[in-house]
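Dear support,

I submitted the protein below through the web form. The confirmation email said the job was done, but the results page showed an empty box. After a refresh the structure appeared. I'm attaching both so you can tell me whether what I see now is the final result or a partial one.
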Amino acid sequence: MKKSLFTLEKTEKLAADVFALSFCGDTSGIVSPGRFVEIELPGKFLRRPISVADWGKGRLLLLVKEVGIGTNELVNSPIGTEFDMLTGLGNGFDISKAADNTILAGGGIGIAPLYGLARRLTQNGIFPRIALGFRSAADSFYADEFGKLGCEVRIATEDGSLGSKGFVTSLFDADKSCYVFACGPLPMLKAIHSLPCVEGGQFSFEARMGCGFGACMGCTVRTADGCKRICKDGPILFKEEIVW
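What the results page shows now:
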């Protein structure tokens, strides 16, 4: 964990309630995809945990869904605003497990950490299939960015306005075994976990967090290996340790 100041350089609206925020600052504490940051907002007691979408030397990209007062203030902050952030939080994805049959499955804002994961996999010569789920075409974002990495992108929308009609689980081939990296709402994660074709995988969980680094125990969940903290021992859990 590292505490640093980050300066907002650019805000881009991607969908009705999703924004891409670009910052400059010290990203040396971020060493693997799937980790998150905690942002301090003026007048707010608790920091806001946000998944890291991508990073490089001195640059940080966050995809933020506007869901409340805190995130509303964040996405509407003036360019040049400085934010106090804790970086390098969480355990991150283990990319050594990826293979040619890898699928990255994301739903809604859960897509965010999968982009940085996809970039690093393609840099290692692995081009995963991308399965993205949205409510409608108006809610979709970042499909083109995944495609520019050289990945095959499949999309499902609940109303059928983009891609195939249905849920992200419909984008899996039932007769082909796969290893999955998934992030999204719990019902989506549970549905993917139960697919017979998913032989193994890593699932990124969300939880309400107090501290974000394992001190308050507020985000503890039960697993096959005992209780784990989503902020410290997660947010990534392996398929075999998940207890629904």
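Response: this is the final, complete result; the empty box was a page-load delay. The chain has a mean pLDDT of 96.
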